[in-house]
Amino acid sequence: MTNASLALTALADPTRREIFERLARAPSAVGELASELPVSRPAVSQHLKVLKEAGLVVHRTHGTRNVYELDPNGLGALRAWLDQFWAEALEAFKAEVEKDEPTYPQRHGGAPSSATPAQTPPRNPKQRNKENPK
Prior knowledge:
This protein has 134 residues and is mainly alpha-helical.
């Protein structure tokens, strides 16, 4: 199973997702997390074990306490996996937009021509009066 698969499987559980979100706000010890959740301390420890195996959290030992925090390396791997879909979606969007863009023939100087040909005005006002008397 890939790191991304392990991470997604770990985060599929609502309690683990809640623990993960709390650790995103601040590193915490097991006891602190257990006091904030409707599960026992041993259950929180088991959830943290799954998150650690998935590469999403790491822990430091402070005396008798294990303080958990998010693992930036695991998050980077998960983000890279998700970003591939974002890049594919953007490429597909770009291709679709470019497919529907109208193309205009180029005129002198590179400016696009309009849909209807421009009419040239008469060269002088007297010539106009001769052609179109009013």
